[in-house]
From TrEMBL:
Belongs to the ferrochelatase family. Pfam families: Ferrochelatase. It comes from Alishewanella agri BL06. NCBIfam families: hemH (TIGR00109). GO terms for cellular component: cytoplasm. It comes from the Bacteria. This is Ferrochelatase.
């Protein structure tokens, strides 16, 4: 078998550090055809759907891919803009901002790029480009704050699949989670406080996370615990008492039990318990996407109002907010430690000076 060769090997060339941001991925367009292609790749991943392969092949190809693409395309049509899919354009914007922040901090010789686990741009295309640029040390930061085998684990699989074909592998650092990272928590706290400043507080703050089947938790996936810890740390940062916030799980798929409490059922029940205003924030989504804009911003708003709720607000994701970009950049810098970084000394000194001024 032939491996992907690095034809341009030359002695004495400086190694570069690469930073690869990754996210889930999104269909190329909001059409049933593009959805079928995207969902086939996504739902064929054994990390996502842990069901015996042969049985799942028949269910996926015989039933799901004949029904869901049309339904999902309609939902995606409500969130696609002139710039395309929100998940994609927010990731582009985050990548540019992280590259600029790292350069401003003196890390001028770092190659920053992004790839999507499903759809485009693929891991293979982006890794090939990075290797051609001379990247020999690589940090991969999946933009999933909480670890789950179905997301972060699957990201590692795809990376490994690419590496299995390569002759010359880079040094690798993989950030498997950052659910309790102080910068990330501070960015969430700031996001919510900024919303409060404009709109005031509500009776309850809901932290809604994407769900996974309960079976995965019982088999040892730490995702559930990490979500609860993130909620607790954000609530502490906001000075909220336990009865002022809730942690719930959204986006169920299929018939088996998923992590509870379910976001939709909670929102349907809250007005009956005397809660007439809620604000919903989704700490697990580093960028707004179908699951936040349409499912939380629209669908669940209707459930709450239909049940008698008076005021419902979705607090948008961290996206490319400066606090988020600072947190991600710091996470990357922390993971660069010990690697020879060709930082521009003048810029590094200037960044240090600016930082110390901010602290004073
Ligand atoms: C089928 C099982 C699924 C598991 C398990 C799952 C876990 C999971 N997903 C995210 C983040 C996102 N999921 C998104 C969309 C989406 N998710 C599933 C299914 C599972 N997800 C489907 C079928 C879809 C596609 C939309 C649909 O047809 O309903 C997205 C949005 C992508 C976008 O283009 O906007 C995100 C983000 C996490 C974090 C997670 C486990 C922790
Ligand atoms: Fe999902
Ligand atoms: Fe959804």
């Amino acid at each position: 078998m032939g491996y992907i060769n690095s034809k341009d090997f030359s002695h004495g060339r400086a190694d570069k550090i690469g930073v690869l941001l990754t996210n889930l991925g999104t269909p190329d367009e909001a059409s049933p055809k593009a959805l079928k292609r995207y969902l086939k790749q996504f739902l064929s991943d054994p990390r996502v759907v842990e069901v015996p392969r042969l049985l799942w092949w028949f269910i996926l190809n015989g039933v799901i891919l004949n029904i869901r693409p049309r339904r999902s395309a309609k939902a995606y049509q409500t969130v696609f803009t002139e710039q395309g899919s929100p998940l994609l354009f927010h990731t582009v914007s985050q990548t540019k901002a992280v590259a600029a922040e790292l350069a401003a901090q003196g890390y001028t010789d770092v190659v920053v790029d992004f790839a999507m686990r499903y759809g485009n741009p693929s891991f293979q295309s982006v890794l090939e480009r990075m290797m051609q640029q001379g990247v020999r040390k690589l940090i991969v930061l999946p933009l999933y704050p909480q670890y789950s085998a179905s997301t972060s684990g699957s990201t590692f699989d795809e990376l490994a699949r690419d590496f299995m074909q390569r002759r010359w592998l880079p040094d690798l650092r993989f950030v498997s989670h950052y659910h309790d990272n102080p910068g990330y928590i501070a960015a969430c706290v700031e996001r919510i406080k900024a919303h409060w400043q404009q709109h005031g507080q509500a009776d309850k703050l809901l932290f809604s996370y994407h769900g996974i089947p309960k079976r995965y938790l019982l088999n040892g996936d730490p995702y559930h615990c990490e979500c609860y810890k993130t909620s607790r740390l954000i609530a502490e940062g906001l000075g909220l008492a336990p009865e002022q916030y809730l942690t719930t799980f959204q986006s169920r798929f299929g018939r088996e039990e998923w992590l509870k409490p379910y976001t939709d059922e909670t929102l349907k029940a809250l007005p009956g318990q005397g809660v007439s205003s809620v604000q919903v924030f989704c700490p697990g989504f580093s960028a707004d996407c179908l699951e936040t804009i349409e499912e939380i911003g629209e669908e669940n708003k209707e459930y709450f109002e239909h049940a008698g709720g008076k005021r419902y607000e979705y607090i948008s994701a961290l996206n490319d907010r400066p606090e988020h970009i600072k947190a991600l950049s710091q996470l990357i810098i922390d993971n660069l430690q010990g690697w020879q970084v060709t930082a521009d000394p003048q810029r590094l000194a200037r960044a240090k000076q600016l930082n110390s001024q901010e602290v004073q």
